[in-house]
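Chapter summary example.
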Amino acid sequence: MRYAIYRCLYGEDFIQDSIQSISNYVDKIFVFWDDTPWGDIDQCIYKGEVVKFPEKFDRIIEKIQALNNPEIELIYDHQFNNINQFTHFVNDIILPNYDRPDEIMVIEVDHVFRPDQLELALHEFRTDNYIAATTRQIEIWKGFRHRVPERPYRTGVALWNMSNLKYFPETQRQADYADMPRLSAEVHNLGFAISERAMYWKHMTALGFSQAIGDSQPVEDWYESKWLNWNPETNNKNLEISLGYEHLIPQAIPYEINELPVSIYQRLMKMEAVA
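The structure predicted for these 275 residues follows.
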């Protein structure tokens, strides 16, 4: 038995694509959702001005419900920060109340698999008998035709083997641990390819909670200077969002769109047909 776990505050752009990409490979999908950013904040300071957060950032819950998938369990759960959040989800909520799974997949709302890559990930994970491992990531940039060069230190989808674990261990911020083994399989991460409105609130909330929970502080004007006004020829340098680490994404590079998951490729074709 295999469970998938999401955690969300917002993320409507690709949640349906993500869930549909894994639903045939899992027995249950847990979506833990929150309505308050980490740090219990309701505003941030942006360029010297107070930005108040909306009561609701987007319609991700409605998007999930619209799938009408009986495998999905929507569970409200508020956490002050993201340290060991998945340990809490598994040990305090899933294990006491549901059948014990053999495997757990921790995936983000912007992660979308191609079937061949998910099948490869599961095969590698079982064959090598890992306790835990992570996929690699293809981080798609704005517009779907570019990607970020691979960042090997980044955690993708985390897989955990529960057969020899009584409880879920400490899982840091992303259900991982230091030096977690990496599979050769890849997941497409669409976190840099979301809508302008979604990226705005993603950036504003990060500006607000980063200090409150001790997370990496974003470059304040990244949303406008690096993402919104990005140009592949004139404005394509030092794209990482974290302050002091801008060089870790030196540029966005062209990506072969035929390698995109089918639903994302079809979305791109529709967008360009309208344009």
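To summarize the output: Residues 196-274 form one domain.
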